[in-house]
Amino acid sequence: MENATITLLKEKINQADALIIGAGSGLSTAAGFTYSGERFRRYFADFEDRYHFHDMYTGGFYPFESLEEYWAYWSRFIHCNRYMDVPHPEIFQNLKKLTENKDYFIITTNVDHLFQKHGFDKERLFYTQGDYGLWQCMTPCHPYTYDNEAQVKRMVEEQKDMQIPTALIPRCPICGKPMTMNLRADHTFVEDAGWHRAAKRYEDFLQAHRQGKVVYLELGVGYNTPVIIKYAFWRFVHANKQATYACVNLDPIQIPEQIRHRSIALQTEIGAVLRQLGGERL
User: Fold this and answer.
1) Does the first or last residue of the chain, that is N or C, have fewer Cβ atoms within 10 Å of its Cβ?
2) Contact (CB, 8 A) for 26 and 249
3) Following DSSP, what letter does each residue of 194-221 receive, concatenated?
4) What secondary structure letter does DSSP report for 246?
5) Binding of Zn(2+): at which residues (predicted)?
6) Do 200 and 252 belong together in one domain?
């Protein structure tokens, strides 16, 4: 990692009129919310032994035969990735330092609620793809979501032999059909009133900073849904000649030729970059 590149990025952020952060799964992974390896085996060894999948993500698509088993898996998944603390909170603490005394907004495709858990202003957050902490009707018969913390914790505590008690299966209070996760997978995803308010705040922030010194800082964004953050950031920077695009990612970084001269690429660990950026201002 080149110190000169870090110094340049820090200068751009310090001088910026606004900071817009786009966060993908790489940020949560850097903070320790990994879906495979030792962490997976610690919490899902029984599912791995029986069904032979080797990571949490794959398990989320497994066709379990009963809702009791489905929710035994998903309650553990939610508990691990929504209600547990991250092993490396300093990642978010250092990122938060960057936003102090700065006009900022965060858009993220992550659904683990880590920004709010680490003290970021929820009025400056837009979770586009849902929240592990919310359920919705599977149909859905109405456009509302429901907090699941209390029931998820009961599911984790009371499950036996990889099944929850039938009485704990979550059902829609309106139509009685099973609930499902509030995660964007298809057209049934519920964009509730809170989602629309956050979307409006983000759009208003973008419009207010169409010009001027704006830094678009992309952290750990891949190519599963690049149109939401990555491609949008490229367009915004191309349209604003005073803007800077910065990308931090372990994977190879691609930048369009049209904005390359106003871009900063750091193919390295997010934690290391944030540790340096979050220090004393230059």
Assistant:
1) C
2) yes
3) HHHHHHHHHHHHHHHTSSSSEEEEEES-
4) E
5) 137, 141, 172, 175
6) yes
Same domain, 163 and 212: no
Q: Is residue 179 located within the same domain as residue 219?
A: no
Q: Are 120 and 94 in contact (CB under 8 A)?
A: no
Instruction: Quote the pLDDT of residue 278.
Output: 77
Q: Could you give the CA distance from residue 37 to residue 54 in angstroms, rounded to a whole number?
A: 8
Instruction: Reply yes or no on whether the pLDDT at 226 is more than 60.
Output: yes
Do 119 and 139 fall within a single domain?
no
**pLDDT tens per residue across span 164-179:** 999 999 999 999 999 9
Based on the structure, what is the number of domains in the chain?
Answer: 2
**Is residue 3 scored above 90 in pLDDT?**
no
In angstroms, the CA 229 to CA 83 distance is 26
Q: Are 235 and 207 in contact (CB under 8 A)?
A: no
Is 247 annotated as ligand-binding? no
- Residues 98, 26 share a domain: yes
Residue 172 labelled as part of a binding site: yes
Q: For residue 128, give both structure tokens.
A: 């586009």
| Within-domain flag for 66 | yes
Domain of 22? 3-33+87-129+191-277
- The answer to whether position 53 is within a domain reads yes
Same domain as 91, residue 160: no
Confidence grade of residue 279 (pLDDT, cut at 50, 70, 90):
low
Tens-place pLDDT, residues 138-156: 999 999 999 999 999 999 9
Strand partners of residue 162: none
**Annotated binding residue 141:** yes
